[in-house]
Each structure stands twice: as C-alpha cells, then as structure tokens.
Amino acid sequence: MNLEILTPDHSLWKGEIDLVQLPGADGSFEILNNHAPLIAVLKKGKIKIITSDKNKEFVEIKGGIIEVLNNIIIILAE
Hints:
single chain; 8-stranded mixed beta sheet
C-alpha cells in the first residue's frame, strides 16, 4: 500500500506500508492491504505506521481526514 500524509504546508510522510493505525473520531482503527474504500475523520493523536520493511514509525497530528482507495491512502492532516 502507498501512504501519504499531507499538511497545508508540506508532505509529512510518504512511502510503502503494510499497516497504518489511526486515531479516528469514533475510536482507533487500522488499515491493511486491500481495505474497502473509506473516507473518515481523524482526531488529535498519533498515527502508527508499519513500513514494508517492518519498521514502526509514529506521526503526531491535530486532526484531519483520511481517504482509502485502491491501496492508496491519503491523509490530509492539521
């Protein structure tokens, strides 16, 4: 899967991933390969990223929106 985390100013993160865990407005959730199309609201918290080479990375956001479509994940974050 491809993940890109964007802010109004710049790109925070971009790359190939196996899993992403997100702070959803209604609770935490994960996206795995071949996930159904999705648009959701995110709240303040940490995004946990498991990269294709199994490394863990964390990105702090103040909120945002996620779109998942055809194994491409785009997060518009504050």
